[in-house]
Design goal:
Elements: E1 10-13, E2 16-17, E3 22-35, E4 46-60, H1 65-73, E5 80-85, E6 94-100, E7 104-108, E8 116-123, E9 128-139, E10 143-144, E11 148-149, E12 158-181, E13 187-192, E14 200-206, E15 213-235
Antiparallel strand pairs: 1-2, 1-5, 3-4, 4-8, 5-6, 6-9, 7-8, 9-15, 10-15, 11-15, 12-13, 12-14, 12-15
Length: 236
């Protein structure tokens, strides 16, 4: 696998494609360790505890939809859904998915520099590493996406994210799903997102077995409908 330059990174915040406003994104996870050392031990001993994660965004200030979304997020539970495409959102590309609450939000102004802002949010549970299942492109008709091969199934569930960044047409509707398969031929539903009629975002968690292959499937209706969206899934 080749190295990836940071300029290829793309970031979605809720229903907003935020890449053109951001200069830095950090998605970090960790796990607390509880010490179990006793007098008879020769060294420290630990058992793993709770998972944790943090999202940090830094960018250029502009009074636009992104800044308004960040202001609205203040004090609201799980108000920020951030999906970062490390190498864009081409199907199969790695992404990080995190949902959390805004804990700090600052604006930085310096002489001879563009005004910047920073946001920090702890992630609920953790930051999940997964894959993109739909690039940030427009769709106008019902279709199935390309399957992504994990080489094997997994047993601990996962989280799916949907970011609809644009919608147009008369009474447009988008019914998006994440499906899984054992053979890349027969797919069954894994996650069904709420019907979208405008720009929106959603995250869902599932438990149990996630089969080897994953894809996105979508149904679009309305008069001259068009939806631009990204879908992603992270196994656990």
């Amino acid at each position: 696998m080749a190295f990836v330059h940071s300029k290829s990174t793309r970031v979605l915040v809720n229903e907003i494609s935020a890449s053109a406003k951001l200069r830095s994104v950090t998605a970090a996870n960790s796990r607390t360790m509880s010490q179990t050392t006793v007098f008879t031990d020769d060294g420290e001993r630990f058992i793993p505890g709770l998972k944790a994660g943090t999202m940090t965004l830094e960018g250029l200030f502009e009074d636009n939809a992104l800044y308004a979304d960040l202001q609205d997020a203040n004090g609201t539970d799980n108000s920020l859904l951030v999906t970062a495409g490390i190498n864009g959102y081409a199907v199969g590309s790695p992404v990080t998915i995190a949902v959390g609450d805004l804990t700090s939000h600052g604006i930085n102004a310096q002489v001879a520099e563009a005004v910047g802002f920073s946001v920090e949010s702890p992630a609920d549970e953790t930051v999940d590493l997964g894959v993109s299942l739909h690039d940030e492109t427009a769709e106008t008709a019902t279709a199935d996406g390309t399957g992504v091969d994990n080489l094997a199934s997994s047993a601990s569930g996962g989280v799916g994210a949907l970011h609809v960044t644009a919608a147009s047409g008369t009474s447009p509707t988008l019914d998006a799903k994440i499906q899984h398969s054992t053979d890349d031929i027969t797919y069954v539903d894994l996650i069904t997102f709420a019907q979208a009629t405008a720009a929106t975002s959603e995250r869902q968690a599932v438990s149990g077995t996630v089969n080897r292959y994953l894809r996105t499937s979508w149904a679009i209706a309305g008069t001259t409908p068009s939806f631009t969206f990204v879908a992603a899934f992270a196994r656990r």
